[in-house]
Amino acid sequence: MSEPVDLDTTVSVTRREIWSSLTLWLALHEPDLIFLEDVDVQETSPVPYLYSMVSVADKKKALSTVGLYTPEGMAFLMQPPSHSPFSEEEEAYKTKSFSLFVRGFGLEDTAVHRLRAHILAWEQAGRPAPDNLYIQVDPISNNHHPVRSSLIVKKKWHQFTLQWQGIP
Hints:
20% of the residues lie in helices and 37% in strands. The chain is α+β, with helices and mostly antiparallel strands and 168 residues long. The longest helix has 15 residues, at 15-29.
């Protein structure tokens, strides 16, 4: 894979769902998560179009997305390739659902498939929202045994157990 590759995940989302739910899911499950921005877009940009903004002060255009990085390649969330940032139709993209795509760059497509797998797992889990997230903090020395679907984040002194309510 030397040219960018676009993969339709077949998961329909809104931009609000991405920021309020999917991004948190990715941050908790993917250690190689990255955010990418182009804060001075001219005619084109290498940043895949997920979100766009225009500065009120200086009218500069910006694009941003989220994805993952591996030494072999990168993959980023994006809107369908047919959607154009900074267009008159863009206002409709803000509230309507669209099929989420992944754009991959690099020598291998491992990152593309890994990111797609996270999206499908999020979808299968019912698109858990942060308002249903229960977080328990224990000293690292505690022998807390979480339920199967919990996510454990270990730090130097504490262990965080994250569990979405309603997910067994």
